[in-house]
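User: Please fill in residues for this 182-position structure.
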């Protein structure tokens, strides 16, 4: 069975990030024909258009990883009611030089966790706006606005009981959505 590769982009660099844990927990719920790879963002330089003709090796690697994937998953915190700069920086890198974006046409989804009650809803709306421009068709429902609190994850990193059925259902919808767009 050919593996369907999902490039996972996590918008937090924090060691104990809830969103990193969410990305890892979701990957454990994936069906066997899907593989989820969390991409490294912390070695990407700040985007500078002057570098378009000679991108850093880390930028080349990041773009190649996106290009080699069949689908995308964005797992992001909310920073000041939008997406973190780290995530926007990565998105901008892979969208350039003009005409050489690697995002277009790959089916994607947006999920997120925050300590705030609205669970990244505003950041996700901003991200959906960006992805629309980049021609990334994005799963509409179910929306995943996770309020990070005690019990969200089990000690082994798996998704805790309270969110498990919901997120397993989300995974079923997401993978069906990806299959439809391949
Ligand atoms: C936050 N946080 C936050 N939370 C939220 O729900 N809405 C917001 O607008 C913000 N804004 C914000 C800005 C900045 C600069 C930081 C550092 C944090 C809190 C945020 O939800 C919390 O730090 C999460 O733990 C971040 O996600 P990770 O790193 O755990 O994945």
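Assistant: Residues filled in for all 182 positions:
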């Amino acid at each position: 069975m050919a593996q369907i590769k999902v490039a996972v982009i996590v918008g937090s660099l924090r060691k104990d990030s809830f969103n990193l844990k969410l990305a890892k927990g979701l990957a454990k719920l994936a069906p066997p024909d899907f593989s989820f790879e969390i991409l490294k963002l912390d070695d990407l330089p700040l985007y500078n258009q002057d570098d378009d003709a000679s991108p850093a090796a880390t930028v080349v690697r990041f773009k190649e990883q996106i290009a080699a994937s069949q689908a995308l998953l964005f797992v992001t915190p909310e920073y000041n009611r939008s997406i973190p700069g780290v995530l926007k920086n990565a998105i901008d890198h892979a969208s350039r030089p003009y005409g050489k974006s690697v995002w277009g046409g790959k089916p994607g989804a947006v999920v997120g966790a925050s300590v705030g009650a609205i669970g990244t809803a505003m950041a996700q709306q901003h991200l959906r706006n960006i992805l629309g421009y980049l021609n990334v068709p994005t799963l509409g429902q179910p929306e995943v606005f996770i309020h990070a609190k005690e019990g969200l994850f089990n000690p082994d990193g798996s998704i805790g009981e309270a969110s498990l059925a919901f997120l397993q259902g989300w995974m079923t919808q997401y993978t069906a959505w990806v299959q439809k767009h391949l």
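For context: The two ends are 15 Å apart (CA to CA).
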